[in-house]
Amino acid sequence: MTVSDRVVDYVFGYRIVREDPAVVAAARLLVLDCLGVAFAGAHDVESGTPRLASSAARPDGCSIIGATVTSAPPDAAFVNGYSAHVLEFDDSTLNPIGHPSATILPALLAVGEAHRRGGADLLAAYLVALEVHARLGQARPAHWSADDPWLPIGTIGLLATVAGAARLTGLGRSATGHAIGLATHLCGQLSVGNGSAAKPLGAGHAARCAVQAVQWAEAGFPGPADPIGRPGGFADVFLGADRVALSSSLDRLGGPTHLGETGVAIKRYPNCYGTHWSVDALRDLLADNGLRADDVREVELAYPDGAAFLDAPAPVTPEEARFSLQYGLAACLVHDYPQRSSFTAVAVADPLVRRALDRITARPHAQGTPEPDRWAHVVTVRTVDGARYRHSVRRPRGHPGNPLAEAEIIAKFEDNTAELAPDRRTAVIDAVADLTARPDLTGLLGPLAA
Q1: Hey, which end of the chain has fewer CB within 10 Å, N or C?
Q2: CA angle, corner 297, sides to 293 and 301, nearest 5?
Q3: Phi and psi at residue 247, in whole multiples of 5°?
Q4: Helix, coil or strand: residue 64
Q5: Do residues 177 and 122 make contact, with C-beta atoms less than 8 angstroms apart?
Q6: Which bin fits 376, alpha (ψ -120 to 50), beta or left (φ > 0)?
Q7: Stated pTM of the model
Q8: Residue 199 phi/psi, 5° resolution?
Q9: What is the pLDDT of residues 405-435, one digit of tens each?
Q10: φ and ψ at residue 272, rounded to 5 degrees
Q11: For the chain, how long is the longest CA-to-CA vector?
């Protein structure tokens, strides 16, 4: 059996009825969160989503979240994927690094609508895709890193999305293998896109490519044999060619899922997840010591080497601000915590924010810092009266080890969909809670029209 065959076998062998109910419940909350984030992205005044939606409009097509127009399945997946990632508010994984739902869910929604699938089918395909994403990603030495030249969204994210979309479409085994093979020829996004519009466009592009690969396979186009495991294939190019690690990781397909073992982070703040440790450290330090922003003379941050790509002391655009450790801390001083309204052109240029940035310094940990200290984000505050406080956070809010409560996730969804009438918000919440019993996706997507 080839490496690719093992993935295909898992796609066909998965049965949601055997799944741990806690894992199914966690998946439903991830779906709700992603829908809310996509709606917020679609309505963000600076996101550009309306332009994308109008350019993709097509009568009697698939739903575009937050819009009254519809589009062909690949283009609907593209626009919804962009909206889900444009605010950097969508879920994240650390082991491996990635943003699974922003690519997976938009593609599955388009395929599910086009093929008139029900909620149980959608949720099963979503869980399949999450698991393929995790196990392929864990075959990468160090499970990816922030300084890797490849963005996981355009590699493991794309192949995982194809696996879920092929399952939802109802492709046969052979055609599913072809879809995966075709998708490998569409892989590849560079991490230089961080902090620019290229990154959310890449999420939408990966969702669209997944739908197209499945459509091509459905139409009879063949892909290469064993595209993942063959010499020069996906594993060699994107995973590092460690055959032992790849085999060991794929052995876990069909066992307890990554979602149940490790979990997926649901973000509390709309900026890069790597900034959340320092944000929570500063927030907790201020709260625990009864300090206000006016009491703070300076903030110093010592961060692990892996966070160096976020050392951006003077961001100019909202996209750059989302990838700045310093800006996340400045938002705490000016806005209490990083909020959606913190990441606009006006907010980034606000003189209060710029003066707050002047009070913040950041540096990597000194050479020789022992573990586990060298993995921590350590915030030190010096006050105007000369006092000194120091704090770090092991797991930020929303981390699988410090998860948001269901009520907090629902509150986040309600805030992200504030433009909707209350009965529409409730309809989506109820539809997600009852997803496995839904015969189609109308109740899920209909209320999210503009």
Answers
A1: N
A2: 90
A3: -65, -45
A4: coil
A5: no
A6: beta
A7: 0.96
A8: -65, -55
A9: 999 999 999 999 999 999 999 999 999 999 9
A10: -50, 135
A11: 73
- Contact between 81 and 52 under an 8 Å Cβ cutoff? The reply is no
Distance CA 133, CA 239 (A): 12
Residue 145 has pLDDT above 80, yes or no: no
46 φ, ψ to 5°?
-105, 5
Handedness of CA 343, 90, 360, 382 (dihedral sign): positive
H or E element, residue 444: helix 442-445
Query: Strand runs (DSSP E) across 185-305, as ranges?
Result: 296-303
Q: Do 449 and 417 contact (CB within 8 A), yes or no?
A: no
Length of the chain: 450
Distance CA 251, CA 436 (A): 28
Phi/psi of residue 248, each to 5°? -65, -40
Tokens linked to 105? 């869910």
Nearest Cα neighbor of 267 from 206, 195, 338 is 338
Token pair 């139409």: residue: 219
> Mind listing the pLDDT tens digit for each residue in 45-97?
888 777 787 888 888 789 999 998 899 999 999 999 999 999 999 999 988 99
User: Would you say 327 and 357 are in contact if contact means Cβ atoms under 8 Å apart?
Assistant: yes
Q: Quickly state the pLDDT bin for 141 (edges 50, 70, 90).
A: confident
Integer angstrom CA distances of residue 137 from 37, 99, 145, 159, 391: 24, 11, 11, 11, 32
CA dist 40 and 56 (Å) reads: 19
